[in-house]
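Example record

One chain of 282 residues, shown exactly as stored in the release files.
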Amino acid sequence: DQAIYKITVVTSSNDDSSTDSGVFMKIYGDKDQTKRFQLTTTTENSELLFKQGQTDEFEIELNDVGDINKMNIGHDGKGLRPMWHVETVQIRKGSQIFKFNADQVLDLSIQDIDLLPFVPEKSPSPKPTKSETSRSTSSEDKVNVKETIYKVSVQYGSLQQNFNDDDDDDNTSLYLVIVGVNGKTKRIPLPVNKKDEIEFNTTDVGKISKILLGQDQNEHEIVYHVDNIIIKRENEITTFNIEDAIKQNTELEFTPSPIRQPSITRRSSISSETSTSDVKIK
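Predicted structure tokens for this chain:
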């Protein structure tokens, strides 16, 4: 069976978010999956697509995959600007709407990503009669996204420079994205050289499968040396052995791993009793 997919892609309004690369997508469902196809249109020049802050809409007929449970989107790395900051994606199939929150920069190091949808919602039903007008039909009633509290501890390496107390941690360019079985969080700014846990409330991604650790462009040429990261979610503790340097305009992916303890060098010592017993005074 075939189905009509109406796809809406929003490019971030941040600076340097546009791309002139070809953008491709693949849709997965509980019954089937589509081929990898390019997001293009016959009514517009392809060079006018995926511009900063722009919303692009596409309609394509493909095999019916059933209920959509995942999609992959990325670019081919061609063109003069093989970098793209995709904000959100929405797929409408029949009466179902599947929304994907990306907020991801795709470049030559990470050219595509898998995204999981929020809870699908039906198309708006007919307007209620007068007797039903007291019922709330806000979007908050339609989509119930579970949130949870995360506690994050970051251990920086000995090579990390100490910043002055006057530095504004809110302006740090280092960020963290937590990825789980139910999706991923938005970018979480990481204050530098904070010994205490960082606590924040955001979307519950379920069991953590990996993290993305990156640094945006900033006016200071800073390299963050991170040893390890510990994330606490309810009764779940997930550790990541990093031991890597996070440079500007890079984003690295890490899977859970035990934190490696520093090796201890044992020094042999000679007791005072031994030293005096071995020496004879004549």
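Notes: The domain at 2-123 is CATH 2.60.60.20 (Lipoxygenase-1).
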